[in-house]
Amino acid sequence: MNKTVIENFARINSSLLYLPTFLLLAILSFLCSRNALSNEAYVNCQKEFFLFMNSELAEYPRTLYNLTQLGDALIILSFLTIFIIYAPKMWESLITASIVSAILVGVLKPLFGIQRPAAAFGPENLTIIGRKLMGSNSFPSGHSVTVFTVLTVVLIAFMPKKIKYQIVWSCSIFLFGIILILTRIGVGAHHPIDITVGAIVGYASAIIGIAINKKYNIWGWIGNKKFYPVFILLFFACSIVMIFKIFEANLVIFYFALLSLLISLFVITNLYVKK
């Protein structure tokens, strides 16, 4: 499995950044054409579509609230912990890509200062599921960035060799990603362009992260068994955090994330003891 990941990452080059660059320029052109570069104009040009999508998606509140948790790095990465053992090369790039995405989000959110939907339109005018977000840090959607950063790394890491399987695999991953980021509209947390740009930034972060890690091999120690105690402690700590999340909000997704962590904890501990 790790060999497949290495081979797939070796094919990555800067040309994969052409598409996200083009899409970002297209969105900028769209906003310019609508004179929507100011905060107020930006949110108003999407208001009608946002309210429609928010109303339609909010018919499934429990499903939305569970799925939107996958935009939390702790939750989505919990499902991939087992690959630290079987595909450490994927995790090496995943860590670098996550750092890149965190930096970009940390810079872009305060730079643009876009109001959240509840702040822009009033919480009484939309459906809010979960925590009411009222700040001015809507653009881009951090959850969307996280989702597409992780899914793009996974997409490339396990890309099949045959074209027909590549198409099915790619479509499945991107469809899953789109469903996840749409939940941010459903819960009333983000505008449509927030999640669109978030997905693009996440994709670009993944490509940049893979490229950086391929050149510098920063996290090459991850696959070394002598460092397994680090991950044993990390998985244990994350499991405790997940238990607290379950007490705070009794969501099915937290149980699955905890189960994944516990399985990974058992497997890695067992391998370390037998080394």
How would you describe the overall organization of this protein?
- The protein has helices spanning 2-10, 18-33, 39-44, 47-57, 61-68, 73-78, 83-86, 88-112, 117-121, 142-157, 163-186, 192-216, 228-248, 252-273.
- With 275 residues, the chain is mostly helical.
- Helix 4 crosses helix 11, helix 8 packs across helix 12 and helix 13 (228-248) packs antiparallel against helix 14.
- The model has no long low-confidence stretch (mean pLDDT 93).
Which characteristics define this entry?
275 residues, mainly alpha, 14 helices, 0% strand
Euclidean distance between termini CA atoms: 20 Å
Mind summarizing the main beta sheet?
none
* Helix coverage percent: over 70%
Q: Label the structural class.
A: mainly alpha
What is the string of SSEs from the N terminus onward?
A: HHHHHHHHHHHHHH
Task: Give the oligomer, counting copies of the same chain as homo and different chains as hetero.
Answer: single chain
Radius of gyration: 20 Å
Shape field: globular
Number of strands: 0
Strand content: under 5%
Low-confidence spans: none
State the helix count.
14
Mean pLDDT: 93
Topology, element by element:
Blueprint: H1 2-10, H2 18-33, H3 39-44, H4 47-57, H5 61-68, H6 73-78, H7 83-86, H8 88-112, H9 117-121, H10 142-157, H11 163-186, H12 192-216, H13 228-248, H14 252-273
Helix pairs in contact: 2-12, 4-11, 5-11, 8-10, 8-12, 10-11, 10-12, 11-12, 13-14
